[in-house]
């Protein structure tokens, strides 16, 4: 089936890479833009990558288009004659070139879902026609996601995860037989390589519609196969501080996180733009902090099933669940193939998501908040956000609006202290204490320096001389408060 889309040409040609590729008329052969790039263009979504079915020598074509686009071609694993072109930070977009083989319909027949089995002849005159041999546009209009063949998931089990992303992004629902096939084939998800697995997970939980994706993966059984630690939470009840069981609570936490990520200024005021900028920073392998935080939201309470106890009075408790969760998160990070940096980040956010709750019990002050910032370090913002999202999803009969207000204000102050600690360096350091007091480095020096830092935060001291004078009593007046080295 071929359908004319009058607005499609504008959408396609607005993409710089498509314009470059379509302008290569001197290359012999036929060329088709295909796959999700066409779907994105039709629906008005941001185009993430251009897939080209190439009827010429794919290496020669990739080199030529790479020169024009400033991208370097790399062999595409698993696809003979396929090449991927992208810059190191992926800011310029990417192009994937695959052989046209027996024709475009043959290429599209190997696509996972009908809504992706779309193509456009790049050399055709305007208005271009959508090539749609599997009825993907009809499925798109009907709002359903249908597997292209009965073997879609056995041919590529990663499509079990891709289905959740497509449903969320394009507002689709799984067609009945596709849902059944996903449930039947769910165990094959274990055969996906860790690298690919994490890439799909990062895309799923680095975007929007987090809880909806989690629900869909649960309904197909894929989530349980992928994360048995999460599956163990499905039927776990909670105490009177909560209004939901662990799984439904997790979904609400993810909704809260998404609200914070989409509108951080509504939660953190003037620091909202800094939170947004920080969430866009990569942690490891190009995967940003937002994706890690979204995934941490999904697994943050996986320690509860193993740590659950019931007192003689019937009260349910989860003492130490955050520590247990951190240990389980370590296993998940290993299965996903995360490196040292990514693993440490994910484990830390899960293991420390209760830290602000403990701060509330300890008593909040500039000193205790800075102590928390020092403990959490680089994951402070993520822990603040997850902890607040967690607390907002704790609305049982023992929870009050006043307590929630106190918690939100405390969380915001910890965030403010983190950015202050980042922006304003300490007035003195350990070298100053050693030189001016003539003492050896040790716990006493660290304690004194922290006291200076707290005083600086409280604006009790504002310059180096005041800082040295402030430390003098700790070292029995041995400080050279003149500041001479």
Q: How would the global form be characterised?
A: globular
Q: If classified by CATH, what would the architecture of the largest domain be?
A: Orthogonal Bundle
Indicate the CATH topology of the largest domain: Hypothetical protein af1432
* % residues in beta strands: 5-15%
From the helix content, strand content and strand pairing, which structural class follows? alpha+beta
Total beta strand runs: 14
| Gap between N and C termini | 82 Å
| Sheet of most strands | 8 strands, mixed
The number of helical segments is 27
**Number of domain modules:** 4
Range of helix content: 40-55%
Broad CATH class of the largest domain: Mainly Alpha
What is the multimeric organization of the chains shown? single chain
Q: If you compute it from the alpha carbons, what radius of gyration comes out, rounded to the nearest whole angstrom?
A: 27 Å
Unreliably modeled segments: none
Average of the residue pLDDT scores: 90
Strand order of the largest sheet: 1-8-7-2-3-6-5-4
Brief overview:
The protein is an alpha+beta fold and 485 residues long.
Explain the overall architecture.
With about 475 residues, the chain is an alpha+beta fold. The protein folds into four domains: about 1-140, Beta Polymerase, domain 2 (2-Layer Sandwich), CATH 3.30.460.10; about 150-225, Hydrophobic Seed Protein; about 240-425, Hypothetical protein af1432 (Orthogonal Bundle), CATH 1.10.3210; about 430-475, no CATH class. The protein is about 55% helix and about 10% strand. An eight-stranded mixed beta sheet has the order 1-8-7-2-3-6-5-4. The chain has a two-stranded parallel sheet with strand order 9-10. A hairpin with a 2-residue loop joins β11 and β12. α8 (about 160-170) crosses α11 and α17 packs across α20 (about 340-350). The mean pLDDT is about 90.
